[in-house]
Amino acid sequence: MKPLPALGFVLALVLSTATMADGPNAVPLHDTPQPLATVSFADENGNALTLDRWRDKVVLLNVWATWCAPCRHEMPTLDRLQTTLGGGRFEVVALSIDRAGVGAVRRFFDEIGIQHLGIFIDETMKASRDLGIYGLPGTLLIGPDGRELGRLIGPAERDTPEMVAFFEDVIAEHTGKESTR
């Protein structure tokens, strides 16, 4: 059997992983939490950040860009998920890799009515490379201890009742507190 060229392999991986997003477990979980690279990025005001800012919370890190059509479609569902579950135990962190900068992200958020997500940006795209995200959108579920619980490359509807229940269960399991369901 002839091996797939690198681009073919990546495309097959993205397409096969994206189909997993149809089920209630749209962020396939690892058998055991995995170490996560330390990545740096900035907030809307240019302040340097790392994921340590959200230590002790379950984080849904979504790496995206305004020029990515599936990302644009997914962003409102992330905003609604943040509205539903965001708080002391959970946070959606939408990390843009737009080289056009904060202005492009702000315009996009204003255009489609994103109100509950912070603006975080890595114009260098180094964070996505360091995290091993080679397709967009790329979503990592991160535990309160900073380890990766699971990941999905490809879009998903993040705010369906099944997804909210899934995230509530993960939050309860990893924060030691009962689900709000």
Task: Give a description of the structure.
- The chain is of the alpha+beta class.
- The chain has a single domain (26-175), classed as Glutaredoxin (3-Layer(aba) Sandwich).
- 34% of the residues lie in helices and 21% in strands.
- It is built from 5 helices and 8 strands.
- It has helices at 6-19, 69-85, 102-112, 126-130, 161-175; strands at residues 29-34, 41-43, 48-49, 58-64, 90-96, 120-121, 138-142, 148-153.
- It has an 8-stranded mixed beta sheet.
- α2 (69-85) links the parallel β4 and β5.
- The N and C termini lie far apart (50 Å).
- Mean pLDDT is 87; it is low at 1-25.
Quaternary form: single chain
Look at the structure and give the mean pLDDT. Answer: 87
Trace the largest sheet across and list its strands: 1-8-7-4-5-6-2-3
Structural class: alpha+beta
Name the CATH architecture.
3-Layer(aba) Sandwich
Total tally of structural domains? 1
Question: Count the strands?
Answer: 8
Give the overall shape: globular
**Can you write the helix and strand succession as a string?**
HEEEEHEHEHEEH
Give the count of helical stretches: 5
The CATH superfamily is known as: Glutaredoxin
List the helices and strands and how they pair.
Layout: H1 6-19, E1 29-34, E2 41-43, E3 48-49, E4 58-64, H2 69-85, E5 90-96, H3 102-112, E6 120-121, H4 126-130, E7 138-142, E8 148-153, H5 161-175
Parallel strand pairs: 4-5, 5-6
Antiparallel strand pairs: 1-8, 2-3, 2-6, 4-7, 7-8
